[in-house]
Automatic annotation (TrEMBL), chain A:
Pathway the protein acts in: Nitrogen metabolism; nitrate reduction (assimilation)
Record's catalysed reaction(s): hydrogen sulfide + 6 oxidized [2Fe-2S]-[ferredoxin] + 3 H2O = sulfite + 6 reduced [2Fe-2S]-[ferredoxin] + 7 H(+)
Domain BFD-like [2Fe-2S]-binding: 445-491
Described function: Catalyzes the reduction of sulfite to sulfide, a step in the biosynthesis of sulfur-containing amino acids and cofactors.
Organism: Isoptericola halotolerans
UniProt domain Nitrite/Sulfite reductase ferredoxin-like: residue ranges: 608-669
Domain NADH-rubredoxin oxidoreductase C-terminal: 348-411
Keywords attached to this entry: 2Fe-2S, 4Fe-4S, FAD, Flavoprotein, Heme, Iron, Iron-sulfur, Metal-binding, Nitrate assimilation, Oxidoreductase, Thioether bond
Record-given protein name: assimilatory sulfite reductase (ferredoxin)
The family this protein is said to belong to: Belongs to the nitrite and sulfite reductase 4Fe-4S domain family.
Keyword Transmembrane helix found: no
Residue ranges of the region described as Disordered: 877-900
Residue ranges occupied by any FAD/NAD(P)-binding domain in the UniProt entry: 16-311
UniProtKB/TrEMBL annotation, chain B:
Kinase listed as a keyword: no
Statement: the UniProt record of this protein carries the keyword Oxidoreductase: yes
Pfam families xref list: Rieske_2
Organism: Isoptericola halotolerans
The name this protein goes by in its record: Assimilatory nitrite reductase (NAD(P)H) small subunit
Length: 913, 135
């Protein structure tokens, strides 16, 4: 047995708080402590039983979509790198010695504490039904539970394949969930998502009996049935019996004599606080379990606290994350000398099952004396809404929403406050005339993170937030379950309007339209030049700009000033250039379009810091022949270019001067290369792993697919750059989920993920569709890209676009796979036109003397290099000299031989028309 | 083309003929390599506006230190014709060289915040620029 020194005082005088448990509330405690303890008074150690960082248990069902445990990790991962935070994973605490103020972990190590916080949470209950330990009976609590359930259902699906004379028939996997509460319905949704049948067995009279009244429960049953999930209410399970042959769970027998054949059962009947440590440490335990604490969350021992589901506060344990987070904040405040108290539990809940809107808050069952219930029900649509009001019908006491939870976000924070006007107005379908609610500052908007309306308003007025995104990162509102986001958005926008901050989507002073609006306008009006577009849709000059008024310099004044007005700028011109290019208007340097292109597009190369360019030929899928490599190497050598391999599996050549570009392109084009569009807001590369053609593990030809995708979408202009990736198996060596579009091979086809990116705010792409054939996949990507191109904002990458698209990824999926907007044919036709109209932009310039003429260094000396360029040698290549190196003069490191034309032999081009 | 005492002698033509107006694309710039009266080389960015008038400013972008202004996007702020640096996107008035939007950046050490403007005009289809004065 090893042991730390038992004196808790740190050499630096810091005190030590030990947190037992690694769940959501424990994470919140550590996060809040580190945020508020700015003086660094406390060092915190967290002991987690699971081998993971604290993750979002509320979002567990999402694990089926994201399939990546890391994705559910809570908060900023940098928290665990904080030197004052120690995270011990897979390190359960097994004993507490309150006298010595130490805990012992499962490895036998003893750790001293000054203060101890119990956040051990709870266990999924396994009701004492005979057969509850049979193989195939699961609980639904941790990532491992969910992963095991998934594995079981997939194995059963394989086993249920029966070969008949007619071919292979797949018998469905039959699943049942015991418990019709919040968790039970999420588990049933998870079974459906896995392709299993699901029946929910509820002992009580109706689903979600804790949160919803009978009327709401009946409406909810209809909604759940519509999702293909069966419901048996008022049913007690007597026994689960094994299958005769396999010994796995095979049948459920009910008290009413009924029975159900099953392949898998999930028990979701509730949770039990994990209070065994508190018990063995001799702390008082509540009647139904849990460590008893007062309103400061302190147990009987002044140095031991309990928070979250293990705490028995006001006589009960609370199985929701919001009150747990509040408790965490209370204890942090106390440790830092504050006097916070638990304000009472906010038990508002919202079901997170796609397509089923259920929410309740406050006194949902109308148990307050003399209260009035106002109900609005539409049984055919499966809608049930109820408000519980005080006897004078003015104060809001609670509410239930089934089938339409839209009023929930704005009404919940009004709990206990007076509603303006007729309360029934709030229950009518959208636009029913409910007055706008002006929330009091103290109203709690985000219950997960305990953020009030006042805090959100303050974020706008005092912290310069000008978007919902800013407010989210500033206040944490809406960052956990997201149910309050519509309200956060509304408050933010109202406050910005009040503060006189214009909520404008206008591109710039020349266009009042957003990029998406302008795109539609240009497409529908069938316009093809900037002049036509600004004439038709641009902001009009003020009438005061009378004809004949001189330009700013007073030159050329006779009637020539007006054409100069409102001629666009560096914001709107590239946007229009991109829109025109997306709509197929020929070469981007043709005619008037040439003046619209941004720096890099204008030269079809990437400008570097000294004004020279880098050149990237396309290498589709990262594939290149030895001959191709030799050509690239020879070109770089002849033109004295610095070479580097890019992150997108191709080769970048730096230091090319304007006047050299056409000569470089000619050499590359002659060898069969084309522009790699490294300069464009357009498809860059499709990265791939080597795939099934060489790899031992590959299940599909990822390189072949990457080449096909790159050739299909090359040159496609979009609101921002686009990157793609293709992996040949689930090992994901191409890192496709870090791309705007990622394709991962399965043994049945391809999974398509969208909305990923690297960079400053990395995002993993989310699953759009599974097991598609190659043709289905191309169609899905065609539509995804076209929808993005048409509706995204200027410089908005796919990840924020997906997030801000009305209805999110689900709505995008409906447009793409189910043609919910009826525009699929149009999107397909637009992509077909792009594929048909593609041409290599470099080659087109080489063939056009007029365009070629623009690639001279000086109009009066087209082949003279910029005399100010200076380079020094480094690691065998050149790099731009720093100002200090240039200032050092002839004796300095600048090497003139690296600047001059190195080209000895090679093509010469007539660059003057 | 350079005359040694051009700056002080009013009878001497201070204008340099640079190129034909037709060599310029409307609303884009070109670079020209010229010489001041004291014999030092100066790079000038020349822009053709939609009314076929021309403007000239220094080619050196003070915020990046690179000679690139001719490759910026021509536009307008209010009624003022402008050019945006192709490197860090500062916006300058074409007529005066004044920096209208610095984008929170400061010029490189030793360089001013604004561009030096040069008089420019078109005579008989030929663009002329006056760079005779000292820097």
């Amino acid at each position: 047995m090893t042991s730390e020194p038992l004196t808790s005082a740190q050499p630096d005088g810091r005190r030590h708080v030990v947190v037992v448990g690694g769940g959501m509330v424990a994470q919140r405690f550590v996060e809040a402590l580190r945020a508020r303890d700015t003086a660094g008074e406390w060092r915190v150690s967290l002991f987690a039983e699971e081998p993971r960082k604290p993750y979002d248990r509320v979002g567990l069902t999402r694990y089926f979509e994201v399939r990546d445990a890391e994705e559910l990790t809570l908060g900023d991962p940098a928290l665990w790198d904080d030197p004052l935070v120690d995270l011990h994973r897979d390190c359960k605490v097994v004993a507490i010695d309150r006298e010595a103020r130490t805990v012992t972990d499962r490895l036998g190590t003893v750790h001293a504490y000054d203060e101890l916080v119990l956040a051990t949470g709870s266990n999924a209950a396994r009701p004492p039904i005979p057969g509850n330990e049979l193989p195939g009976v699961f609980v639904y609590r941790t990532i491992d539970d969910v992963a095991e359930l998934r594995g079981w259902v997939e194995a059963k699906r394989e086993a249920n394949k029966v070969t008949t004379r007619g071919g292979v028939v797949e018998k469905p996997v039959r699943g049942a969930v015991i418990g019709g509460g919040l968790l039970g319905l999420e588990a049933a949704g998870a079974l459906k998502a896995l392709g299993a049948q699901a029946t929910v067995i509820e002992f009580g009279t109706h689903l979600m009996g804790v949160q919803v009244d009978l009327g709401g429960g009946q409406a909810l049953k209809r909604l759940i049935n519509d999702k293909g999930i069966a419901v048996r209410a008022e049913t007690a399970t007597k026994e689960m019996k094994p299958h005769r042959r396999t010994g796995h769970v095979g049948r459920m027998d009910f008290a009413d004599g009924g029975r159900l054949d099953v392949d898998v059962v999930v028990m979701a009947t509730g949770v039990r606080p994990r209070d065994e440590l508190a018990r063995s440490a001799g702390l008082p335990i509540g009647e139904r379990g849990g460590a008893v604490v007062d309103l400061t969350c302190r147990t009987e021992d002044p140095h031991v606290w309990a928070i979250g589901e293990v705490a028995c506060i006001e006589g009960r344990c609370l199985g929701l994350v919001a009150p747990g987070n509040t408790m965490a904040e209370v204890v942090v405040d106390r440790l830092l000398g504050g006097d916070a108290e638990f304000p009472g539990a906010d038990t508002a809940t919202k079901l997170k099952l796609s397509g089923v809107d259920v929410a309740s808050f406050g006194d949902a069952h109308g148990r307050t004396e003399d209260c009035i219930e106002i109900v609005w029900a539409d049984p055919t649509a499966g809608v049930y809404k109820k408000l519980v009001m005080s006897d004078d019908a003015r104060t809001l006491l609670g509410g239930v929403f089934v089938g339409d939870a839209a009023p929930y976000a704005s009404l919940r924070p009004m709990l206990g406050a007076e509603l303006p006007g007729d309360p029934a107005a709030f229950l009518l379908p959208e636009g029913g005339g409910a007055p706008d609610l002006e929330l009091p500052d103290e109203a709690n908007v985000c219950s997960c993170n305990n953020v009030s309306a006042g805090t959100i308003r303050g974020a706008v007025t005092d912290h310069d937030c000008t978007s919902v995104g800013d407010v989210k990162s500033c206040t944490r509102a809406g960052t956990t379950c997201g149910a309050c986001l519509p309200l956060v958005k509304k408050i933010t926008e109202t406050e910005m309007a009040k503060a006189g901050i214009e909520v404008s989507t206008a591109l710039c002073e020349h266009f009042a339209l957003s990029r998406a609006q302008l795109f539609d306008a240009v497409r529908v009006a069938d316009l093809h030049s900037f002049s036509e577009i600004i004439e038709r849709f641009g902001v009009r000059a003020e009438p005061s700009a009378s004809p004949g008024r001189g330009s700013a310099a007073g030159r050329d004044s006779a009637g020539l000033a007006s054409p100069l007005l409102h001629r666009g700028c560096d914001i709107c011109k590239p946007v229009v250039g991109s829109i025109l290019a997306s709509l197929g208007n020929g070469h981007i340097l043709s005619g008037e379009q040439a003046a619209l292109q941004d720096t890099n597009d204008h030269m079809l190369a990437n400008m570097q810091k000294d004004g020279t360019y880098s050149v990237v030929p396309r290498m589709p899928g990262g594939e290149v022949t030895p001959e191709g490599l030799i050509v690239v190497g020879q070109v770089a050598k002849d033109f004295g270019l610095y070479t580097k391999i890019t992150g997108g599996q191709r080769i970048d050549m730096f230091g090319a001067r304007v006047e050299q570009l056409p000569e470089i392109w000619k050499r590359l084009v002659d060898a069969g290369f084309e522009s790699g569009h490294a300069y464009g807001k357009s498809l860059r590369t499709v990265k791939s792993c080597v795939g099934s053609t060489w790899c031992r593990y590959g299940v599909q030809d990822s390189v072949g697919m990457a080449v096909e995708l790159e050739l299909r979408y090359r040159g496609l202009r979009s609101p921002h750059k686009l990157k793609m990736g293709v992996s040949g198996c689930a090992r994901e060596c191409a890192e496709a989920r870090g791309k705007d579009v990622g394709v991962i091979a399965t043994d049945k086809g391809w999974n398509v993920y969208v909305g990923g990116n690297g960079g400053q705010t990395p995002k993993h792409a989310q699953l759009l569709a599974e097991d598609l054939t190659s043709d289905e996949m191309l169609r899905a990507i065609d539509r995804f890209l076209m929808l993005y191109i048409r509706t995204a904002d200027r410089l908005q990458r796919t990840a924020p676009w997906v997030e801000e698209y009305e209805g999110g990824l689900d709505a995008i999926r409906e447009v793409i796979l189910a043609d919910s907007l009826g525009i699929a044919d149009d999107l397909d036709a637009a992509m077909a036109a792009h594929v048909e109209g593609y041409e290599d932009e470099w080659k087109a310039v080489l063939e056009d003397p007029e365009k070629l003429a623009r690639f001279g260094s000086f109009v009066n000396a087209p082949t003279t290099p910029d005399p100010t360029l200076a380079y020094v040698a480094e690691r065998g290549q050149k790099r731009p000299a720093t100002p200090e190196e240039i200032a050092a003069g002839p004796d300095g490191p600048v090497d003139p031989s690296l600047t001059g034309p190195v080209l000895v032999a090679g093509a010469t081009l007539e660059v003057r028309a | 083309m350079t005359v040694t005492d051009a700056h002080t002698d009013p009878t001497v033509d201070r204008w340099t003929a640079v190129c034909r107006l037709d060599d310029l694309v409307p609303e884009r710039g070109v670079a020209a390599l010229l010489e001041r009266s004291d014999g030092t080389a100066v790079q000038v960015a020349i822009f053709r506006l939609l009314d076929d008038s021309v403007r000239a400013v220094q080619q050196l972008d003070p915020y990046s230190g690179a000679h690139v202004m001719s490759r910026g996007i021509v536009g307008s702020r209010g009624e003022e014709p402008t050019v945006a640096s192709p490197v860090y996107k500062q916006v300058f008035a074409l007529a005066t060289g004044r920096c209208l939007e610095a984008g929170g950046k400061t010029p490189r050490p030793g360089l001013g915040a604004h561009l030096e403007p040069f008089a420019a005009e078109v005579r008989d289809g030929v663009v002329h620029v006056d760079v005779a004065g000292p820097a």
